[in-house]
Amino acid sequence: MQFLLDVWNVIFNQVITKPQLLLAIIVAIGYTLLKRPFVTVLSGAIKTLVGVMILQVGAGQLTATFRPILVGLSERFGITGTIIDPYVGFPAALDALGDNQAWVGYVILIALGVNILLVAFTKLKGLFLTGHIMFQQSCIATALVAYNLGLPMLPTILIAGGLVGIYWTLGSSALIGPTNKVTNNAGFTLGHQQMLMDWIASKFSHKFGDPEEDDCENLELPGWLSVLQDNIVAMAIIMFFFILVIMLALGIPKVTEMAAGTNWFLYTILTGVSFAVYVTIILTGVRLFVAELANSFKGVSEKLLKNAVVGVDCPAIFAFSPNAWMLGFLFTTLGELIAIAVLILIKSPVVILAGFVPLFFDGGPVGVYANKHGGFKAVAFFCTLTGLVQVFGSALVIPMSGMTGGWMGNFDWATVWPAITVVLRFVGNLFGLPVPPYGV
Q1: At what angle do helices 131-149 and 86-97 cross, to 10 degrees?
Q2: pLDDT tens-digit profile of 356-370?
């Protein structure tokens, strides 16, 4: 009996509670159910294990690098600076979960199960299979539910998994029609972080112009914009300028102290570029394990769900309107800068620092949908609005998140999920749960 207890303790406390081991086991089980060869089962599990561990290294370095800067900002001005970028947000969520990080693996499984059931038994047909986004969103949702309700593991993962699964299904299903129009019936939908604004743009852009007469693809954009098509280069450039502004606000003496012997300007360059470095490390790890995670479930879902439409990552629509994507990125950046300036002017206790992903991977897709349904003016309006909402919505939800230094920042996480969080807090207070005060 003692032997069985020892085995259970090892499995529960040292395997199930470690996300890298848990996800590796999930992938192995998925491939086994698909009757894949042993070599595929083993290699898939190992790639998942290594991928999650690489992600943890990159996330840890990212947090360690930028936390001193945010602390310095808080000490200097008495404000809380938060980077809105999923590759800063989900490490912050994992950090907030602490020893409960493995709950995320269960939430992914529950959410995927809810998504599959809804597709199988309702008229909703969007099957969300953008693996790294599934992981990010499950992390944040788990942290939100755990922080605001203070419940044990089982109710936390059931609530978070149910909410995420419904969100995936509704969002990806709503974009089936608009995506078919953008892609000339390519047969997929989008599964990402700004599905609500994509849908809004597709429904209302026609009020701003004729999509054929005002098509962004008929515009000649300056050649230098092509440099921003490389994600790594764009991240490094954008984050350098944002970090430079922060460093100048902190003052050269303070930055020199932080640089520990390195020239303050060189330190600023290296810090800005390091964002691209750590995100690249994170993406490398994510690509390793999400491909295996998605493949281990894809075969099953395809056999069981004949009419499902797969929700994929947003770069899938880039080629259908590249000019609109780049203009969407620029107008979203404009909207964020205006909103950040407003927060500073009103002396908001929460100040947002722009991240690359919400600018490029929200602004781009929104621009594509807006252009296809309304042309250039629609792109300008809806993408500027996207940037404004990203900042103001994030500033409102961050005090309810329990996270420090990072938040998702994408449109849905500045609108849909703040609304869900408010409902969670209302229900929690109604039932006498330990809901933290706003801003704590």
Answers
A1: 40
A2: 788 888 999 999 999
CA-wise closest residue to 283 among 133, 97, 390, 108: 133
Structure letter (DSSP) for residue 82: E
pTM: 0.79
* Per-residue pLDDT tens over the stretch 379-389: 999 999 999 99
- 204 located within any domain: yes
Closest C-alpha to 90, from 141, 25, 131, 45: 141
Give how many domains the chain has, as a whole number.
Answer: 1
Burial class of residue 218 in the structure, from the number of CB atoms within 10 Å of its CB (0-12 exposed, 13-18 middle, 19+ buried): exposed
Burial of 130 (0-12, 13-18, 19+ CB in 10 A): buried
Structural domain contains residue 181 = yes
How many CB atoms sit inside 10 A of residue 210's CB? Answer: 11
Asked whether residue 436 is domain-assigned, the answer is: no
Bridge partners, 406 (sequence order)? 83
The values of phi and psi at residue 92, to 5°, are: -65, -35
- Residue 44 has a CB neighbour count (10 Å cut-off) of 23
Structure-token pair, residue 57: 């290294």
Tokens 């081991």 locate to 21
DSSP strands (E only) in 71-168: 80-84, 126-128
Strand order in the sheet with 350-354: 350-354, 80-84, 406-407
Q: What is the DSSP letter of 401?
A: T
User: Is residue 57 situated within a structural domain?
Assistant: yes
What is the domain range of residue 237?
A: 2-430
**Strand, coil or helix: 310:** strand
